[in-house]
Amino acid sequence: MGDILDIRDLTVRYADGTAALRGITLALAEGTRTALIGPNGAGKTSLLLAIMGAVPFEGRIVVDGIELSKRTTHEVRGRCGMTFQNPDDQLFMPTLLEDAAFGPLNQGFSAAEAESRARAAIEAVGLKGFEPRPAHHASEGQKRAAAIATVLAMNVRLLLLDEPGAGLDFRSRRRLTDLLAARPESLLLATHDMDMARELCSHAVLLDRGAVAAHGPAKEILDAPKLLAEHGLA
Amino acid sequence: MHHSHLDRFAHEDSPVHRLDARAKLVAVVAYTVVAISFNRYAVTELAPLAVLPLAMLWFGGIPTRFALKRVLVLSPFILFVCLLSPWYDRVPREFAVGTWHVTLAGGWLTSVDIAAKFTLGVLALTALMSTTPFSLIIESARRFGAPRVLLMQLGFLYRYIFVLVDEAMRVRRARDFRGAALAPAGRRLTAVGGIIGNLFVRTLDRSERIHLAMTARGWTGTPPGLDLLRFRWTDAVFLIASAAYLVLCRWPGLWKG
Amino acid sequence: MILAMHMANELLNIPIAAVTILIAAGFVAIAAALARRSLTTERLPLMGVVGAFVFAAQMINFTLPGMPGTSGHLGGGVLLAIILGPWAAIVAMAAILVVQCLLFQDGGLLALGCNILNMGVVPCLTGWGLYRALLGPVSTARPWRQYLAAWAACILGVAGGAALVPFEAGFSGVLRVPTVSFLALMVGVHLIIGFVEGLITFVVVAYLRQVRPVSLGLAAADASGGRLSRGMVAASLLATAALLAAVVAWFASASPDGLEWCTTEHRWAGADRAVEEPSSAVAAVNAWQTRWSLMPDYSRRPAPLGEDPAAPASTTAAKASVVKPWGSLAGLLGTAVTLGIVWSAATLLRRRKTIRSS
Asked: Is A93 close to B159, i.e. CB distance below 8 A?
């Protein structure tokens, strides 16, 4: 098929019954990087959580050829990795090494194998030497990179990143962009950072009020001031 | 001193840092037991016990000033107890070093003894925690068979203390910047309730997100563990030397015999 | 000023430390098993993160009216028990106390057992028990009843835990402060601390009642908005004052006389040895301690480990010599020399390393 992610008629409701996502249909080709943009409350985070199988949904989600259901949640989570808006919510183990090894250990790798995967991932995000350190000794930029390392260690094929560049200074943001540009994984990047989206992504999806407002090549969406203005983004 | 710098030396490198966490933990516990086992009038007998913690600090490259500062910061309660002691134990006791003899109320000797034991205990703990990352202490406890639920809580606790304390200090500052000191007690109390309650609600939400982040990486309920501890011959040497040293401190008579 | 009630190593002897550590370990093991059963995996990260919350909440101080420079803050045990249930709260408090001991060096290693009992097990169990007893059915609790229950639970939990400290110290025999006076002091001070903690806990409960009633086990948000009334605060203030006065009066009438305590102790044990020692209480405590300490004090035994039994430092008529003069001098000098050698070795080692790395 060549699609890493295939979503049909996806609807997600909050606990009180209001819809966060309404009938989303979306396909991402393998190996591409796609920006997910939209105003606050548009449903970006809900979409990412739905793909991870973390919220109940209606419709169909297929990740890397596997249809998401209760039975396959574990398998899907081995193929796509998500980082959260606040890295402090994601780095919950006492040290970076243990944090990066958490996923591989849950995937059933031996302690030694998990450790070597964790070390490789930490090196890949440029944090070599930080392995035995606790997350509270790291800077904000380092925490973002570490959060990404925790999912890279699981050898995922699709990265779902929620606002990875928010609040970073110019240099940290530059490093993060370069790091992501060099990764072979497919990427769905939820962001308000249009510059980062332009630089990294070939495609873009514009969400507003829980529905897809536009989907296409990045240029046509990110460089269309009128479209962005209509949805409160410019 | 900033709160997150309490263990700032734990991640450096030195011969002491490289020792197995289990060896250091066992040595420091044994050390504390020996220190406490001296009777309450022991004053000079405690002196040789200063060697082990100071040696760990020095060889570990930890500034002695840092450790002594910890002793001072923690001392108020114990100083209070020390001052109480002479009041209740006025039996005269002879205290002698060489040809120098003094007669003191027993309570004073107890005061000095308590203060000395306290100083030694804090020095030893500081030496342990400044040369050993907390995560390795948790790992050691796991190897010694501590319940996993508790160890997991320790891990989370260590991870989030600094995050939440920072959050709390920001809110407190925000409160104080808006002139809370001038408010009447009732309003201040309501503010405290609001701040702590708000912090708690955020904590509940955060723990939900953490749980989500954990399950997103395949967690099913069993805490995983890495294999990070290595017991080498240097650890054996350290343990044997510490044991011999502690025995000699406790029974100095063995020198002569 | 923050009054700490962390028990210190130095006030304990080995048997008491060992026994309290065993009891505390037993409680924590049971609590861990029960908490594991009552909490879903979803709530498992909660205990640790909530533990961190308690640290953070302790940063939020409340300056007491009329007492500048004195501020109260939350201890947390009772609040956790109210929200998480006693078992999860005990595990969370145990984790907190371990971290305070190791990372903050607050409370000694060997006193950890005592501290877990005094500040974890006792406040969580008694506080929770009283809270539930006063509250009645949880899901429909009236606000005033809930506040009152939370506040009373704090006072009982905090003062109850503190009341153990004098007994632990007393049985250890290190501190010569009579147990009764120490008890009066600890309970008195902690009634005040418990009062402030209760006040804070109840405003927190009031806030949660408004914002997140589910976390308190309530069925739905409180229609009345759950505001605290001024009368509530005044009534609780008066009640504590009365309680405090009653306790102080009771201890005063129970005569916290140090001398009397000594003589009772004397009759209780070791009276036959009273002749050689200036105070028989000293003898009693010493005999007890020598018998029980892991490694009995060498200078007190008749002929320890091949030393000269006729050493001149033995007891004279009225004074008990504490140390062997020459032995202690040698010990002090030896220690100084050893420390010098260790220090120079460490310095040399470090200097060589910096030279190599530069």
From this structure: yes
What ipTM is given for this predicted complex?
A: 0.87
- Structure-token pair, residue A111: 């302690």
CA C142 to chain centre: 33
Q: How far is it, in rounded angstroms, from Cα B117 to Cα B125?
A: 12
CB contact under 8 A, A82 and B162: no
Name chain A's partners: 3 or more CB pairs within 8 A. Answer: B
Phi, psi (rounded to 5 degrees) for B136:
-75, -30
Q: Which of C33, C65, C44, C41 is nearest to C195 (CA)?
A: C65
In whole angstroms, what is the distance from residue C151 CA to residue C139 CA? Answer: 19
Residues in A touching B158 (Cβ below 8 Å):
94, 134
Question: Is there a contact between B37 and C98 if contact means CB atoms under 8 Å apart?
Answer: no
- Separation between Cα atoms, residue C300 and residue C319, nearest integer Å: 14
The 10 Å CB-count burial string (b at 16+, else e) for B180-219 is beeeeeeebbbbbbbbbbbbbeebbebbbbbbbbbbbbbb
The residue type found at C139 is: S
Calculate how close chain C gets to B179, using CA atoms only, in Å.
13
Q: How many angstroms separate the CA atoms of C209 and A130, rounded? A: 43
Q: How many other C-beta atoms lie within 10 A of the C-beta of residue A2?
A: 7
CA B133 to chain centroid, in Å, comes to 13
Burial of C291 (0-12, 13-18, 19+ CB in 10 A): exposed
Q: Retrieve residue C259's tokens.
A: 């001398």
A97 or C301, which is more confident: A97
CA-nearest residue to B60 within chain C is: C346
Min Cα distance C243 → chain B (Å) is: 22
Backbone angles phi, psi at B157, to 5 degrees: -60, -50
Q: Does the distance separating the beta carbons of C9 and B7 come in below 8 Å?
A: no
pLDDT averages per 10-residue partition of chain C, 358 residues: 62 90 93 80 77 82 62 76 88 89 85 91 93 83 82 89 87 77 80 82 82 73 53 67 68 45 36 36 47 38 39 42 67 80 80 60
Distance CA A171, CA C130 (A): 56
- Is the pLDDT confidence value at A11 over 70? yes
Q: How far apart are CA A164 and CA A189, in angstroms?
A: 8
- What span, in angstroms and rounded, lies between the C-alpha atoms of C127 and A96? 38
Tell me chain B's radius of gyration from C-alpha atoms.
23
> Given this model, what pLDDT does residue A174 score?
92
Structure tokens at C260: 């009397």
Tokens at A96, concatenated: 């970076």
